[in-house]
Specification:
GO terms for molecular function: 2-oxoglutarate-dependent dioxygenase activity; iron ion binding; oxidoreductase activity, acting on paired donors, with incorporation or reduction of molecular oxygen, with 2-oxoglutarate as one donor, and the other dehydrogenated. Pfam families: CsiD. This is Protein CsiD. The chain is mostly helical and 66 residues long. It has a domain of 36 residues. It contains 2 helices and no strands. The longest helix is centred in the first third of the chain and has 6 residues. The N and C termini lie far apart (49 Å).
Length: 66
Amino acid sequence: MSFPDAIETSKGILSVPVPVGKFLLINNLFWLHGRDRFTPHPDLRRELMRQRGYFAYATHHYQTHQ
C-alpha cells in the first residue's frame, strides 16, 4: 500500500470542523494535516496567516539569549 493510500484509510483520521469566525492553531512538527474541500462564505473573506516562531520556550529563554 502506498503512503498516500495508507494515510487516507487510516483509523487515526480525525475531522475537526472549524466554526465561522474561529481558527485552528496546530503544530506542524507534531500533526500531519490536510484540509477538506473549502466552500467560501459569501459574506466572509478567507485569509491565511502564517506565524513563525518558537512557542514552546519559556519567557526566560528569550531573556537569557539576547
